[in-house]
Write a structure and sequence with these properties.
13 strands, alpha/beta, D-Maltodextrin-Binding Protein, domain 2
Length: about 300
């Protein structure tokens, strides 16, 4: 087993494809494939399963990648300290539900990064993808929410991913509508008043489940539903059509104009936080990102921030 093999292994796991990893590393696909086969033969395990969509880690492969990351991080530190190599390549990968504050924190850390060699990756994706990205070490951190309805199911999935949940803030459920919406001038909205309007929600893909929805109260039946996959589409829908969505009440910068955030008359609360794999040791960039999350949240009056 060599350090190069371990670097190849981690790159393939992060990219989900041998071709993509080879391009990223400026190496040949055959070298990476050989490295994986040699490791599998040496360790007596299957590291990846292969399909037309790329490769996916097996359970043994996930465990091996966790150890490989630790070895690589320690080797990079040694090289930086004693080999006169200077600073090592820095990396930050974030998988998140569609929250503006998580993007803002990412951009702030990127702007302040002084390294000459880095990889920054931001994935706004479905809840199941967040869990899988953290489980397979594809992402350093995942951001999602819990409430009384989904907590048991999602916490079990977090545990099965080998991860832990760290609360960031608690928030009352708010209704987002366009400023021209008939309910936009209300100071409080009752749930039954939403029945006649389209409900907007983020599409969750093949793992679609009420428990994995990004919006609270997703299990309550609604006759008119519109699903989408990015925040830009949500903004356009809210400003041009009389629908609604439910969220934390934290409006993104692009939503400050033309969209109203109104409390919903319900006892339900949202707890937004981040998950990290239990075997992951936070890098300086990851620590900076978490600190930035807390700073942005602390400056927002609509949420109840949790202490670090």
């Amino acid at each position: 087993m060599t350090l190069t093999q371990l670097r190849y292994l981690v790159a393939i796991a992060e990219c989900g494809s041998i071709n993509a990893a080879a391009a990223q590393l400026y190496a040949s696909q055959s070298n990476l494939s050989t490295a994986v086969k040699d490791l599998e033969r040496e360790l007596g395990i299957t590291i990846f399963t292969r399909s037309n969509r790329g490769v996916a880690l097996t359970n043994d492969g996930t465990e091996l990648v966790g150890y490989a990351r630790q070895v690589i991080e320690q080797a990079d530190m040694l090289e930086s300290r004693y080999a006169g190599r200077g600073e090592s390549r820095q990396r930050l990968a974030v998988s998140t539900q569609h929250y503006a504050f998580s993007v803002e924190a990412f951009v702030n850390v990127l702007e302040r990064c002084q390294a000459s060699d880095y990889d920054f990756i931001l994935r706004e994706c479905a809840t199941a993808n967040i869990l899988e990205d953290v489980r397979t070490f594809r992402s350093d951190i995942g951001i999602l929410y819990l409430d009384d309805f989904n907590r048991r199911v999602v916490e079990r999935a977090i545990g099965e991913a080998g991860a832990r949940f760290f609360p960031l803030f608690d928030a009352a459920v708010h209704v987002f509508v366009g400023e021209g919406h008939p309910l936009a001038g209300r100071s409080l909205i009752h749930p039954e008043e939403l029945a006649g309007y389209p409900r907007y929600s983020f599409e969750q893909g093949t793992a679609s489940s009420f428990y994995y929805a990004e919006e609270p109260l997703a299990s309550i039946p609604h006759s008119r539903n519109v699903r989408y996959s990015d925040r830009g589409t949500l903004t356009n829908l809210l400003t041009s059509y009389n629908g609604f969505t439910l969220s934390t009440g934290v409006l993104s910068g692009e939503m400050q104009q033309g969209i109203a955030s109104i409390p919903l008359d319900t006892n339900d609360r949202m707890q937004v936080g981040y998950i990290m794999h239990a075997e992951r040791r936070p890098s300086e960039l990851l620590e900076a990102y978490i600190a930035e999350l807390h700073a942005i949240i602390a400056a927002n009056p609509t949420v109840e921030a949790r202490a670090e």
